[in-house]
Write a structure and sequence with these properties.
heterotrimer; A: about 280 residues; alpha/beta; 5-stranded mixed sheet; C: about 280 residues; Elongation Factor Tu (Ef-tu), domain 3; Rossmann fold; 3 domains; 6-stranded antiparallel sheet; about 25% helix; about 30% strand
């Protein structure tokens, strides 16, 4: 029995036993190569779940939907390692209770989907090693190095060009599990910290603020990059911020749910002499 | 007798229009994105795209538009109304769906109060539509009773010739005629077979959809909750739609001066209808999705006699979670009655 | 040009209730004043603003019989209203309007009028009240039922005294249970209850009702019990607005745009709207 079938049965059984009220997984998309998030509340609905190498979205973002988990019930969700990282980060930031999430874990390796053993987030004890061992896609590394090698002016010109496309649709924010603020900083109007306009300043403000708010918290799932309808290479920014945090603090977000947030924690024996 | 414009004469055409004071905008690839941008010569133009990722709406209703420049003093204010640029423009190679998008929005921007930010741009622009010869899986113009060779919204209609050497030329409006008159020497009276438009199968029954939406008891149907589960509430579909027109007005500046701007906004955003008191009539994604569909296929139809959708399919093409209008309208078409 | 506001000078500011102020505004430019005089009818609203902060929507609280100034009454609740509340006499603010539809007061002529309002919803009602009282001979009996949470929350207190003294107006004032002061002389009780006790006759009567949604719901029920039909009850709706002219796409309740086809509706028209969109 393939993993698709296996997980369909698992999902159906979780629903019919009442252990979970909802399973979030993947369904067929509007074209042959697309997959879409699918929500099942009954065993019959679980028949629609698919699982193959095209199932790359990070579904953990749905877990922070307002009101979803306030009833204390459980939700099951199909997750890859980047999704597991997201869960760890959300738990560390007190946005999720580990016991409310049942995991149907899988990894895509060389175009094949393999199951990951574990039902709750605490079972994935090797996640930290896996994260540290994962190499980012060579294309991303190369492009990041190319930009690093630019002069400051060239780099600014590059990003000015890329951000000029930004239309403030906030797709990057909406698909990101870590962007769960009930009122995003851009929606605050007393004062209006971040401009909502898509001029150079407004676009820089938004994209840079989001990059900084994600530094040390990003699970590197790539959802923002894929979601951007104007093809801004957000993967480069988040990769680079992640690398900076790893180099400076030897820290990878989401290795386990006990990790303290790297930029939001203070300890007495901090190597810096000031809080910044 | 039909007229044709050969591709080999396109450079001369552009040069002629440019020397007559027009900027020419056409499909281009800019920074890994296809959009309408200013071109100098024919080779700058991407003629082989099904359609551009961004719409020409950007050039009539920009994402951010300055309205008023103001200086603040308590007992005195200076303000200057900012008006849109009055540049003359030719839009070459517009797809029928994008051109019809402009025509669909005209009645809204002219509804009792004339929005000159829109109309001054409209009056200074000539739309040259090129009929489609290809479509992709997301196109649905025929489902909304338009077509790959619709002339709606066009000032000039070009139909690609079967032999690929150019286009058959048809004047649609006075404005189009005036523009073609400036290049009449470049247009030949000749018959040539045109390439057939692509087959775009209808994906939903828009009549059935409108009937279902018009039935008041369906407003609170469970259908809305079920269909909108995966919508994440971003503005991709709204901002890439040729007909979506919702906006916000914001003041930006410092203590002394600033600019009041009109910026794109989306009914999908959670805070779109939020009252200062905290009450939000549409406080769930499903109610916001319902608003989108009802507005496009019921309210707009009721007020202006046309659906607010040109069938371009960008909503689904670009949606990060594969949603969009097509799936919802297919589901409504297939609901048991 | 569309979206360009009129500059207005603050002539006076009056504190009505905790957090609630009335601004009296005068036109800076003659042509703007002429436009207003030619177009304003009671029921219409405007977007009041301050450059640098934004605009906020409220009714024009002054009547169509007095068009040399604009009065607006609002509660301090967000960015724009807070700044407006802090203006001083002589400051310049902006007004965009008048927009929307109107109370068809010529259709009220020869009939009895029943005005019902709750709390901060007296301002829109007050515009109609004065438009009628300034032409008193055209209307029959005038009854005003007004209530607020507490005595301090009653707005237009000096006008309430004026109306009380008139013998051609019946004024019924109430505060919610617990909102009365030791020297409170009038009713104690929620508006719908007090209305039922006052028992105005529906015979040849038009009701104008403004208030928060919950009060409207119960008051409509009380009016129907008293024999009023929804076609003879007028009310106002409000929604978040930005453009005020039907283009920004946000103020609709179902297919009805509050800024263009409202804010004045009969109760029958409100009942025909999708209630889930309110």
């Amino acid at each position: 029995m393939g993993i698709q079938e296996q997980y369909r049965n698992e999902a159906a059984s979780l629903l019919s036993s009442g252990e979970v009220k909802l399973v979030i997984g993947f369904g067929a998309g509007s074209t042959a190569d697309r997959r879409r998030p699918l929500f099942a509340c009954t065993a019959a609905e679980a028949e629609q779940f698919v699982l193959d190498s095209a199932c790359i979205a990070n579904l953990s973002a749905y877990l922070v939907t307002e009101g979803l988990l306030t009833d204390g019930k459980k939700v099951a969700v199909y997750l890859k390692p980047d999704g597991l990282r997201s869960i760890n980060i959300l738990i560390a930031e007190a946005q999720l209770k580990p016991e409310q999430v049942v995991i149907l874990g899988y990894a895509i390796e060389n175009g094949e989907v393999k199951p990951l053993t574990g039902r709750s987030i605490g079972d994935f004890t090797d996640l930290g090693d896996r994260i540290r061992a994962t190499t980012p896609p060579p294309a991303v590394v190369q492009e990041a190095e190319r930009i690093d090698a630019m002069s400051s002016d060239e780099r600014f010109a590059f990003w000015k060009e890329q951000f000029s496309k930004c239309i403030k649709c906030y797709a990057c924010r909406q698909v990101c599990p870590m962007c769960y603020c009930r009122r995003c900083i851009v929606d605050v109007n007393q004062p209006q910290w971040i401009s909502t306009s898509s001029h150079t300043l407004g676009n820089f403000e938004w994209n840079l603020v989001r990059a900084f708010h994600l530094a040390g918290r990003c699970a590197a799932c790539g959802a923002c990059d894929r979601a951007c309808p104007v093809n801004i290479p957000l993967r480069l920014i988040n990769y680079r911020m992640g690398k900076e945090v790893r180099d400076a603090f030897d820290y990878c977000a989401g290795e386990n749910s006990g990790q303290k947030p790297v930029l939001a924690s203070y300890s007495q024996d901090d190597s810096e002499t000031f809080i910044l | 007798m039909t007229r044709i414009l050969l591709k080999s004469r396109l450079d001369d055409c552009l040069a002629s229009w440019q020397s007559a004071g027009f900027s020419v905008l056409a499909p281009v690839q800019r920074h890994e994105m296809s959009t309408f941008g200013e071109v100098q010569k024919a080779s700058d133009i991407s003629l082989d795209l099904v359609l551009t990722e961004r719409t020409i709406k950007d050039h009539f209703f920009p994402q951010t538009e300055p309205l008023i420049r103001y200086k603040i003093g308590r007992q005195q204010i200076d303000s200057v109304t900012m008006t849109p640029p009055e540049r003359k423009r030719v839009f070459f190679g517009v797809r029928p769906c994008d051109a019809s998008g402009l025509a669909i929005d005209d009645p809204l921007f002219g509804w009792d109060y004339k929005d000159d930010y829109w109309f001054r741009r409209r009056e200074n622009s000539v739309i040259i539509t090129i009929a489609c010869t290809q479509a992709d899986d997301f196109c649905m113009c025929t489902s909304v009773k338009l077509s790959p060779d619709s002339t709606k919204g066009a000032d000039v209609m070009l139909r690609p010739l079967a032999n690929g050497s150019g286009w058959q030329v048809e004047t649609i409006s006075e404005r189009g005629k005036a523009l073609l008159d400036t290049v009449s020497s470049l247009i030949q009276e000749e018959s040539s077979e045109t390439a057939p438009p692509p087959e775009v199968a209808e994906k939903f029954d828009v009549g059935k959809v409108m009937e279902w939406l018009a039935d008041k008891k369906n407003f609170e149907s469970q259908f809305w909750k079920d269909i909108a589960l995966r919508c994440v509430g971003c503005g991709s579909c709204t901002f890439l739609c040729p007909t979506c027109h919702c906006f916000d007005i914001q003041d930006e500046g410092d203590t002394y001066q600033g600019i009041r701007r009109k910026n794109w906004d989306s009914c999908s955003f959670a805070l779109f209808t939020m009252h200062t008191s905290g009450h939000n009539p549409r406080n769930t994604q499903s109610t916001r999705w319902r608003q989108r569909i009802m507005h496009k296929f019921n309210y707009y139809q009721g007020k202006f006699g046309v659906n607010s959708c040109s069938g371009c399919g960008r909503c689904t093409r670009q949606c990060p979670v594969d949603m969009g209008i097509t799936e919802t309208l297919q589901a409504i078409t297939n609901l048991p009655r | 040009m569309i979206y360009s506001p009129f500059p207005m000078r603050v002539v006076s500011k009056r504190a009505e209730a905790p957090g609630v102020n009335t601004l009296k505004l005068e036109f800076v430019k003659q042509e703007d004043h002429e436009f207003f005089k030619a177009n304003f009818k009671t029921g219409m609203f405007g977007l009041y603003g301050i450059f640098g902060e934004g605009e906020s929507t409220f009714c024009v609280a002054s009547p169509e019989t007095r068009k040399d100034y604009i009065e607006c009454t609002f509660r301090q609740s967000g960015r724009v209203t807070s700044t407006l509340a802090n203006t001083d006499t002589g400051d310049i603010v902006t007004f965009r309007g008048p927009y929307g539809n109107r109370f068809p007061i010529e259709e009220f002529e020869g009939r009895n009028l029943l005005f019902i309002a709750g709390g901060i919803a007296l301002p829109p009602t007050r515009s109609v009240i004065w438009s009628c009282l300034d032409q008193r001979e055209k209307y029959r009996d005038v009854t005003i039922v007004y209530g607020a949470r507490t005595v301090a929350d009653l707005v237009y207190k000096h006008e309430l005294d004026e109306w009380k003294k008139r013998d051609d107006v019946r004024l019924v004032l109430t505060v919610d249970p617990g909102g009365e002061t030791p020297d409170w002389q009038d009713h104690v009780g929620f508006v719908p209850t007090v209305l039922e006790q006052a028992a105005p006759s529906p015979e040849n009567t038009i009701a104008v009702l403004c208030g928060p949604p919950i009060m409207i719901k119960f008051t409509l029920a009380a009016l129907q019990k008293l024999g009023f039909t929804p076609e003879n009850v007028y009310t106002t709706l409000e929604n978040r607005m930005k453009c005020g002219v039907g283009k920004c796409g946000r103020c609709n309740v179902g297919s009805v745009y509050i800024c263009k086809e409202g804010p004045v509706f009969t109760a029958a028209e409100v009942q025909a709207m999708p209630q889930a969109d309110l």
